[in-house]
Amino acid sequence: MRQQSFESSSVRVPLFAPPTRRYRGFIFDCDGTLADSMPLHHEAWQVALAAHGASFDFAWDLFVRRAGMTIEATVLELNLEFGTQLDPVSVAERQRAEYDARLQHIRPLVPVVDYLREAARHSPVSVASGSERRHVLRTLELIGVRDLVPIVVTSAEVAHGKPAPDLFLLAAEKMGVQPAECVVFEDAELGILAAERAGMGAVRVSS
């Protein structure tokens, strides 16, 4: 398979191999897949955790291992791993506030956005994200594809977030496409696992 990559001086360079079979429905993650927002999320996390007295370094590799989970679930996982007692609600509130302050700096990951634009010309497309709905909608506006994505599902709408398949199954249902006929574009390992559990194709987007 030939991989697609595009150079950019202002954002990370995404790399992905387009699916080789024909699919009827296309599901895209948002952060780190369509938008170069992961560094902004990481900064917001570091500030929020420091403000609440976290005793560990929330390094990049620790952050990306949990990408796709809700903020509250991530805090609970961090408490288990490091023996801390951070309050998930208050940490989440601070992280979201810090991210809000950085949201205007989001840029598109152009190759993936271009692929979405092409897919939307002939097939149903949707976005399935573990982030807060208002952040997802605003991100899609900022990268110029909100009008192309009629279906947006977030973790608040399902019982279990990634790596459970619930988000992607709901997106497929709303698109009116069988799961086996859908392909998911994801940058996170938990998202790839969720797509596999949903019985869907998966395209890994990396940088």
Compact summary:
By secondary structure, this protein is an alpha/beta fold. The chain is built from eight helices and seven strands.
Q: Radius of gyration, Cα only, in angstroms?
A: 17 Å
Give the overall silhouette.
Answer: globular
Beta strand %: 5-15%
Please write the string of helix (H) and strand (E) elements.
EEEHHHHHEHEHEHE
The CATH architecture of the largest domain is 3-Layer(aba) Sandwich
**Broad structural category:** alpha/beta
CATH superfamily of the largest domain: HAD superfamily/HAD-like
Q: Care to count the β-strands? A: 7
State the strand order across the main sheet: 5-4-3-6-7
Helix content: 40-55%
How many structural domains are formed by the residues? 2
How would you state the average pLDDT, rounded? 91
Q: Give the low-confidence spans.
A: 1-9
What is the helix tally?
8
For the record, what CATH class of the largest domain applies?
Alpha Beta
| Biggest β-sheet description | 5 strands, parallel
Q: Output the CATH topology of the largest domain.
A: Rossmann fold
Distance between the termini: 17 Å
